[in-house]
Write a structure and sequence with these properties.
The protein has 507 residues and is mainly α. It has helices spanning 3-7, 9-37, 44-62, 65-74, 86-103, 106-129, 132-153, 159-167, 173-196, 212-226, 262-281, 297-311, 315-328, 330-333, 338-345, 362-377, 386-398, 424-444, 447-452, 457-466, 476-484, 491-505; strands at 233-237, 243-245, 251-255. It is built from 22 helices and 3 strands. A 3-stranded mixed β-sheet has the order 1-3-2, sandwiched between helices. Strand 2 (243-245) and strand 3 form a beta hairpin. 41% of the residues are buried. Bound molecules: cobalt (II) ion (CO). Cobalt (II) ion is lined by residues 271, 275, 301, 304.
């Protein structure tokens, strides 16, 4: 900290308070990581009590009136003068979070937490039983509560703005909608062209036998090569892969293995390692303070998608790694050329399930959810009519029809868990990833030549400096402009998809 920061008693008291809250937050993260990875089944009831209790302590600390008083004193301080400086961002972000928290009535917060908890339990049942009607009343309740939340927080143009702001601070619904609409208009015809092409990638080779020990070895080698630091991180196995951190030098990523599917664990590991490289790249001296925290979910996802798709599905990446993969999986890949393998891992085909979708169609799955949740929040669609609206959009954008709601509107837990406004961050991540990759390629020289030699360090260091070190000093849109020199648009992603897919499908 600077002398100015150290000499302001309000600022140091505020930062000390937030760092101490960080001890509780990272402890909660450890409890949750353990719950997903190692915890014995019968321990779950007590664990829920532990997590709820810690969450209560965290909430109490965040609405502590002293936080309001410290912030009040700091508003006109020279420390707040530049909102993008470390101290300025700290004051700005903490003020925003504090005001948001105290605006929300405690009863609404509790009702939402309960509705989301019940919603998740009912969703498991509804999905298993293919019973949308069973879930519908709870879903209606959750969306009503989210509307109340939006009203309580306030918004610039539409209620959805308030919900989007939770995950993508500084982003406006109208701007995001404009970008995703432009993306949809170009993506739908490209996907239709691919669907109509006579070429079919040899995807079957990815379903041969891939022994798990070898998959583990390749995942570890590749994630380490791109820059995930195992001295400050771990890779474990879970049913739903994720990345979490529980300290400035403690990042945990997870994956799952399927002996008869190559892509799942390898690309999943690269994805989570991308998230992990971001967490490990944050400035540790600011741990738990805004300058040491990730910028937004969209920027977080850009880091995972960049390594998973822009790097991991690139020909130059495999020019380096394919000989190793062939050595590890001689039986499965011995007779497969690099070109065939490359086309297989980049295969595009409309499918029903978002989490299994390819790089191109994935964004259409997101756009559908984004359009539907906006329509509900803005009062244009009733939750009871979701299945029909869902099916109509899948037919229109992807040309496919789910055989039932379990493979349709019931496939994601998000809405049942109260996560509304979250989906667009996945596509924002893809859009930012393409623009950031292009900027890196322009500034660092030919990345492909580096990748062919197995050298990923320059790109990782560049991301550390340009993206990770910024923390929350800039919003996502500001960071995007600073790093890439241009406003966010659909163009870089479309360009990247066309450059790759048009030759593969001979369009
Ligand atoms: Co992700």
């Amino acid at each position: 900290m600077s002398d100015l920061e150290l000499n302001d008693p309000n600022y140091s008291a505020l930062c000390e308070h937030v760092r101490e809250t960080g001890y509780l937050e990272s402890t909660a993260a450890l409890l949750e990581w353990d719950q997903q990875t190692k915890m014995p089944a019968l321990a779950s009831d007590y664990r829920s009590e532990q997590i709820t209790h810690v969450a209560g302590l965290i909430h109490q600390r965040k609405i502590d009136p002293r936080v309001g008083e410290w912030l009040e004193h700091l508003t006109d301080s020279p420390l707040a003068a530049d909102p993008t400086s470390d101290s300025g961002a700290t004051i700005r972000i903490l003020k925003r979070e504090y005001e948001k928290r105290i605006k929300l009535p405690a009863t609404l917060v509790m009702e939402l937490a309960r509705a989301a908890s019940v919603g998740q339990t009912q969703w498991v049942e509804a999905r298993r039983e293919n019973d949308f009607k069973g879930l519908a009343p709870q879903l209606k309740k959750i969306f009503e509560l989210k509307k109340s939340e939006a009203e309580a927080i306030g918004y610039a143009e539409v209620p959805y703005d308030a919900l989007l702001d939770e995950y993508e601070p500084g982003a406006r619904t109208s701007e995001v909608a404009g970008i995703l609409e432009a993306l949809r208009q170009e993506l739908v015809p490209l996907v239709a062209q691919i669907k109509g092409s006579s070429y079919r990638a040899p995807v079957d080779i990815l379903n041969r036998n891939f022994p798990i020990d070898q998959q583990r070895l390749l995942g570890r080698t590749a994630s380490e090569a791109i820059g995930f630091d195992y001295r400050k991180g771990r890779l474990d196995v879970t049913h739903h892969p994720f990345c979490t951190e529980m300290g400035p030098k403690d990042c945990r990523i997870t994956t799952r293995y399927d002996e008869t599917f190559f892509s799942g664990s390898l690309f999943g590991t690269l994805h989570e390692a991308g998230h992990g490289i971001y967490e490990q790249g944050l400035r540790s001296e600011y741990y738990s303070l805004p300058p040491g925290k990730y910028c937004s979910l969209g920027i977080h996802e850009s880091q995972s998608r960049l390594w998973e798709n822009l790097v991991g599905r690139r020909l130059s990446f495999w020019q380096y790694f394919y000989p190793q993969a062939q050595g590890l999986f001689q039986e499965a890949l011995g007779d497969v050329s690099l070109g065939e393998f490359y086309r297989a891992i980049n295969h595009v085909e409309p499918s029903l399930i978002r989490v299994e979708a390819d790089e191109a169609t994935y964004n259409l799955h997101i756009i559908i959810r984004f359009e539907l949740e906006q329509a509900i929040i803005n009062g244009e669609l009733d939750t009871d009519d979701l299945p029909d609206a869902w099916n109509e959009k899948y037919m229109r954008y992807l040309g496919i029809q789910a055989p039932d709601d379990a493979n349709g509107v019931l496939q994601d837990v998000h809405w049942s868990a109260g996560l509304v406004g979250y989906f667009p961050t996945y596509s924002l991540g893809n859009l930012y990833a393409s623009q950031i990759f292009d900027a890196a390629n322009a500034q660092l020289g030919d990345l492909d030549t580096m990748f062919q030699a197995g050298d990923f360090v320059p790109l990782k260091n560049w991301l550390n400096e340009k993206v990770h070190h910024v923390g929350q000093c800039l919003s996502g849109p500001q960071l995007g402009v600073q790093v890439t020199g241009i406003e966010l648009s659909h163009e870089a992603l479309m360009c990247h998809l066309r450059e790759k897919l048009i030759p593969i499908y001979g369009l």
